[in-house]
Amino acid sequence: MSSPVLNCAGKPLDLSKPKIMGILNTTPDSFSDGGNSYQQGCLDLDLALQRAIQMQAEGASIIDVGGESTRPGAAKVSAQEEMDRVIPVVERIARELDVVVSVDSSSPALMKEAAAVGAGLINDVRALQRDGAVEMAAELQLPVCLMHMQGQPGTMQNKPSYQNVVEEVSAFLTERVDQCVAAGIDREQIILDPGFGFGKTLEHNVELLRKMSSLTQAMGLPVLAGLSRKSMLQGLLQRPVEQRLAGSLGVAMLALQQGAAILRVHDVAESRDILELFWQIDASH
Ligand code: 7PJ
Question: What number of other Cβ atoms are within 10 A of residue 280's Cβ?
């Protein structure tokens, strides 16, 4: 793999050892809170900061702040609403903590504002395909995570279909990397993500996880795995969201063995134990 150290707005992120990205949702209907206190969407600034402090203490190197729910059927969020939710949280965390703050967004305007208040990484589930997004990321000179999704969040789970999911995801990401590099983004600052659950059936997700190392090897770029509490665990284990911790840890370990460089997770402390076990025991890294 080429240089595994990302430059996140001056903060180095060394991916020669895998890292944990802790999820901080600012959406009121965030994926995992399900209306109970399991993980509340952090609308409140102090609460968001407390959660970030906790995740950092538990071992997160990156805090991923998102304000748009991308789960199937989620209500659309206006650009202004997304901005109002995300920017104050990014600003507060970047100011108070020595941690990389990433922004889970597809909006170029939001990327710009977030960078201005200290964001160090752009995480885009649309792989910078919105108008002006590639150019904005190039201008901001922040590392980017490019994720594969088939279709759009509202309808992506209706009938996902592929001839060969691994090849198609790989081809898409290759094309996006080329676009980004052509626009002036440093290739060494790009992270790839197969996008588990984004326009994929259970079988597609399983196939992608099984073959994730081919993605890592073919592209020579770090890969992020977002598997935490996802519905494939419902498909595999018939567990509702509040009972997916063990399953999430299991697939996290498999992802590490397939070469994942970043785990995007809700349960930071537990995931860090998995990461440490992998690092100390598995000789393949
Ligand atoms: C992902 C994400 C993911 C990246 C979400 C959820 C849905 N960003 N944002 N990868 N998932 N890069 O957390 O279940 O898998 S939102």
Answer: 7
Domain at 5-281: CATH architecture: Alpha-Beta Barrel (3.20)
Nearest residue (CA) to ligand 1, atom 3:
226
In angstroms, the CA 257 to CA 236 distance is 19
DSSP character at residue 8: E
Domain residue limits, the chain: 5-281
Q: What confidence tens digit (pLDDT) does each residue in 236-260 have?
A: 999 999 999 999 999 999 999 999 9
pLDDT of residue 82: 93
Q: Is 33 in the pocket of ligand 1 (CB under 6 A)?
A: no
Burial class (CB within 10 angstroms; exposed 0-12, middle 13-18, buried 19+) of 76: exposed
Q: Three-state SS for 227?
A: coil
Ligand 1 centroid, distance to 105 Cα (angstroms)? 10
Whether the CB-CB separation of 51 and 132 falls below 8 Å is answered with no
Distance separating alpha carbons of residues 148 and 193, to the nearest angstrom: 6
* CA 224 to ligand 1 centroid distance, Å: 10
Does residue 148 line the site of ligand 1, with CB under 6 A? no
Which residues belong to the active site? 230, 264
Decide: 228 and 265 in contact? Cβ < 8 Å.
yes
In the block, which residue shows the tokens 């626009």? Answer: 183
Radius of gyration of the chain (CA): 17
pLDDT at 39 over 60: no
- Taking residue 42's Cβ as centre, other Cβ atoms within 10 Å add up to 23
